[in-house]
Amino acid sequence: MWNLLEYAAWALSALFGVLMVADLIRIDITYDNELLISSREGEIEATAERHEI
Amino acid sequence: MAYEPPKQSMAGQIFDVITLLVLTIGALYIPLYLGLAGAAKVPNPITNPTWESLGQNATEQQQWAALGITDPAAANEIITARFDYSFSWTALIVMAVLVIGYFVMVVRLSDREYREVIEERFGTKRR
Amino acid sequence: MQDLASTAAGTDRIRLLRVLGPSHVWALGVGIVLVGEYMGWNFSVGKGGMIAGLMACWVAGLLYTCVAMIDSEVTSTVAAAGGQYAQAKHIVGPLMAFNVGLFLVMAYTMLEAANAITVGFLLDTVAGMQGQAGLHQQPFIVLAIMFLAWLNYRGVLATLTFNLVITAIAFIAIVALFVSVQFGASAVPLDFSAITSDPLPYGWVGIVASLHFGLWYYLGIEGTCQAAEEVRSPARSLPYGTMAGIMTLLIAATMTWYICSGLMPWEYLGQAGTPLFDAARVTGNTSLMVLLFVGTAFATLASANGCINDASRAWFSMSRDRYLPSWFGAVHPVYRTPYRAIVFLVPIALIFALGAPLDQVVTFSILSGLLGYTFMTFNMVMFRNKWPLDRIKRGYVHPFHPLPTIVLLILCSTAYFAVFLGYGTQLSAMMCFYIVASLWFHFRRYKFVRRGDQFTMPWPKPQGY
User: Fold this and answer.
1) Closest in A35, A37, A45 to C79, CB measured
2) Same domain? B47 vs B62
3) Which of A14, B102, C18, C230 is most buried, by CB atoms within 10 Å?
4) Chain C residue numbers touching B4 (CB-CB < 8 A)
5) Chain C residues whose beta carbon lies within 8 Å of the beta carbon of residue B106
6) Looking at the structure, do residues B17 and B34 belong to the same domain, yes or no?
7) pLDDT at B66
8) Could you give the number of structural domains in chain C?
9) Measured between alpha carbons, how far is C107 from C307 in angstroms, rounded to an integer?
10) C424 and B95 in contact by Cβ < 8 A?
């Protein structure tokens, strides 16, 4: 029983790994890199919280 | 004129990541390979152990039994093992200098960089 | 550089999603830490005896209460992904920020590896109890990391809702064990006679030494502020979730010490692998045993999950500012997660989970955490000096300043000494690592960083500059 579980664990690990990497490649091909890294720090601050007294 | 950084090539990015990785793995594994890592307990087993001579009362004996250890000889090493807390003052001073020196260095260099940031962010030349 | 307001108004940017509430913050903070009650803290009993274990529990509790208070004030004001990293950037400077970012990534990735190792160990124990000796632990270690990374990849709300559920179950398991034992569910009575018969086997130095692992009760609670960019109302939720978290942990830690010290001889407890599960075994009650097994498994998974979340946020923020290669600073256009950082950190965690012994990994994690707490002390003082209370509005103002800072600094120094007793080599190796990394950053990496972008908060100019 435990031997089977070991194989199942390997298989599932591989599945999750492949899902992630495949999606990563798909996204990188579909979208422009400049757009993907366009997030900037402090946008919340600028829109929501002004820290004024 | 604000400072415009150079754009880094892909190869440069990969090289930087690898540098950092080598540093990290080195810091963890070098003490390990040199056999300098870790403080192990040293067991001082007594001869002909009984629960009484090991200082375990009736309730504690029951607890050992519940954990699957009914023979005092099996618990002998666990009970008598002790750490050694002796240390050298030189090593302590070296460590203190390292930690304090590190923080002083980081804060001073940071401050230099921080002044540039503030200059550019709040300076009169702001666009 | 463009004006901030117009940058924010632009719609052609992808950002992290703001979906979390205070309960998720609690789940992130407590989820990472609660595993400390299920394994690891008990080495403090081994290092100094039963009383030392309790003293370490409370002294470390005091240390972390200071951490939570200081952190709540700063983070309710500097709310950005990366938590303490963003704080350091605004208050101390870029190099400090780079170091703090590294502390965070190291502390969490190592903790994640330690959790995965524990999952493997736990399954090995269960397989052993069912008569299957010599289980291969690797597939389960890999699976735990892969599954949780995938969950993190798919979105933060599902990840932290999952964490909320399993953390709550793990916490209830501790309370249930405590209550059942109080009402006599245990076949073996509680026994605290070692407090009088063997009070301090190592003398006073034992109390100091035990502080090393006393930190393990709470290590990681400061991770709550990594979620700052994904919380709906950071100035309110972060202090609230963090404070609720530290209270939960103080209760859980004290209960855990009481049950385990009462049900097991301290010599055994001091070297046990899964103390709460062992305590349930001593009671002889099967349902408690199952409950605590589930609790242990859930606590480790919740912790690894939170660690992936936090480490990837820190890595992501550093890359976004080009402290690290900018390629990692990407946000997934659909799931809105820092997906490249998440995927990249998977193999790193695997290297440590499969290759290094548990106590080394744990010590590396504790040390990185400790360096982070030391940073918080002078960070707090500089924050109040550069922006006094009447200059900017804070979401939360902690009382009795500078008392918590001083207490925290004293406790940190003591903790360094505690780690030094036995792990001096690792401490030196790690200091060398951070020194070399700092020089590398200052002289090579910093030239890729845009100066003006390093200050993003809409605050007035700091005093004294």
Assistant:
1) A45
2) yes
3) C230
4) 450
5) 95-96, 99, 438
6) yes
7) 87
8) 1
9) 9
10) yes
How far apart are the C-alpha atoms of B100 and B19, rounded to whole Å?
A: 25
Q: Quote the pLDDT of residue C2.
A: 35
Residue contact C424–B87, C-beta within 8 A:
yes
Write out the residue range of the structural domain in which residue B67 sits: 41-85
* Residue B2 belongs to some domain of the structure: no
- pLDDT tens-digit readout, C33-92: 999 899 889 989 988 999 999 999 999 999 999 999 998 889 888 878 788 999 999 999
The per-residue pLDDT for range C189-204, each reduced to its tens digit, is 898 888 888 888 888 8
C354-395 confidence digits (pLDDT tens): 988 887 788 888 899 999 999 999 999 999 999 999 989 888
Residue B125 and residue B113 share a domain: yes
Nearest Cα residue in chain B from C327: B13
ipTM of model: 0.87
Task: Provide the shortest C-alpha distance from residue C397 to chain A (in Å).
Answer: 13
Q: Which domain holds residue C342?
A: 36-451
C463 within a domain of the structure (yes/no): no
Touch criterion met for A and B (3+ Cβ pairs within 8 Å): no
Q: How many domains does chain B have?
A: 3
Of C4, C331, C393, which has the smallest distance from its Cβ to A46's Cβ?
C4
How big is the CA angle at B112 (ends B109 and B117), to the nearest 5 degrees? Answer: 125
Cβ of A52 and C140 within 8 Å? Answer: no
**What are the pLDDT tens digits along chain B (127 aa)?**
578 888 888 888 889 889 988 988 888 788 777 766 566 677 788 888 888 888 888 898 999 988 888 888 888 888 888 888 888 899 899 999 999 999 999 999 999 999 999 988 887 544 4
Q: Which residues on chain B are in Cβ contact (under 8 Å) with C362?
A: none
Give the contacts of B89 (CB within 8 A, at least 6 positions apart).
Answer: none
Is residue B107 situated within a structural domain?
A: yes
What CATH number corresponds to the domain at position C185?
A: 1.20.1740.10
The C-alpha atoms of residue C6 and residue C26 are separated, in whole angstroms, by 34
Report yes or no on B117 lying in a domain. yes
With respect to residue C27, please indicate whether it lies within any of the assigned structural domains.
no
Distance CA C261, CA C156 (A): 38
Name the residue in chain C with its Cα closest to that of A28: C332
SS3 C231: strand
d(CA A44, CA B49): 67
Q: Residue ranges of the domains in chain A?
A: 2-48
C428 contacts B102? CB cut-off 8 A: no
Tell me, yes or no, whether C28 lies in a domain: no
